[in-house]
Specification:
single chain, alpha/beta, CBS-domain, three-stranded mixed beta sheet, 6 strands, disordered N terminus
């Protein structure tokens, strides 16, 4: 279930949006999940990131394997630490109606390889991935 990276390149005047280029969202977990369980989900799903959702099911962030590993290695680590308690990308996320070129520029400006694509209510529809 590893997402395939997509080079986001928009030909002038094509009118492509983030929704046109997004991929399936992949694993989504609740923000009350512990860091250890989230790491287990990442490993078993063989993915590099998880989408995090709040109690209403809206996208509240994206966490990577590297972020979880770094947190687990810190002196502040506790096996009860929840995803909502650690630093992770909490947005702004890519709107599904965003022009593809603008979405790519925003991701590069924030040095993101992956960005959740959300609808007007904040629910995850998919993800955009950039190639280096």
């Amino acid at each position: 279930m590893t997402p395939v990276a997509t080079r986001l390149l928009e030909a002038p005047g094509t009118g492509l949006t983030a929704r046109d280029a997004m991929q399936a969202p992949g694993p989504q977990v609740d923000d009350h999940m512990t860091v250890d369980v989230a790491m287990s989900v990442l490993i078993s799903a063989r993915v590099e990131h998880l989408l995090v959702q709040d109690e209403a099911g809206r996208c509240s962030g994206l966490v990577t394997r590297a972020q979880l590993a770094a947190h687990r290695g810190g002196s502040w680590y506790s096996d009860r630490t929840r995803l909502r308690d650690i630093p992770l990308d909490r947005g702004p996320f890519t709107c599904s109606a965003a022009v593809l070129g603008d979405a790519e520029a925003a991701m590069r400006g924030r040095t993101l390889d992956v960005s959740p694509v959300v609808d007007e209510h904040g629910y995850t529809l998919g993800v955009l991935s950039l190639l280096p």
